[in-house]
Amino acid sequence: MVAELVGGWWTGSLALLADAGHMFTDAAALVLALTAVWFGSRPATSRKTFGYYRLEIIAALVNGVALIVIALMIFWGAYQRWLEPPIIRSGPMIMVASGGLVVNLISAWILHSHDEIDLNMRGAWLHVMGDALGSVAAILAGVCMLAFNWYAADPLFSVIISLLIVWGSIRLIRESTNVLLEGAPAHINLAAVEDAILATSGVSDVHDLHVWTITSGRDALSAHVIHARSISQPALLKELRTKLHDRFGVDHLTIQMETPDFEDETFHFCNNGTACFKSQRN
Fold this sequence. Notes:
5 strands, Alpha-Beta Plaits, Alpha-lytic protease prodomain-like, 3-stranded mixed β-sheet
């Protein structure tokens, strides 16, 4: 990233600068992952019962917005260069971009053997492959300018690389916003979770079912499960926890066991402002 940043300034290539920005998105993602590991190791407190997991999500949202701003700046620079394309040092530009491609391919080769057993490593591998595509775009722009003196190729391929940044940033913003709004994780089908619970022997109904993400890779579930009085609650609870973990990968579960005649006490506020309870049958 630093080499392409310096190389872009030296050669005058916007495509190299754009590719450096693309690499910055992935470097930032890795830094966020490391930061999350560091903060995640800090113990929860009485005021922050989930610890500091959500800081990763907030940082991801800020990062995504900042990257959109960077992409818009590249778009503006590409527009200005398209009207009056400057002379670019095409030879050095190709060399710097080729160096970036080689480094990315080596990194992809190192990570590839782990991508099927570690989701984090697989994500890193996908980021590196995206960087490799950005380097290829910068090389193609340099070749077009060197072979055909077509200097408009630099802003054109800069736009292509910026679109890669925007694509990744929009996904980052959407996913982080969904987590902050406590939306259901994209990889979990809420209807399938409900069906799995209802298909469990002894379960007659389920309500107040919620699935949300605490932080990346850490999902939570809460539900009220209605069962017959004759059912053993500990055995049923163990079966539900095992099923939900094996099928959906949810580790943090809070399940309230209820019988059909269970009365759920809810409260309303009395005239004097104190909490008064009243019973409502489910």
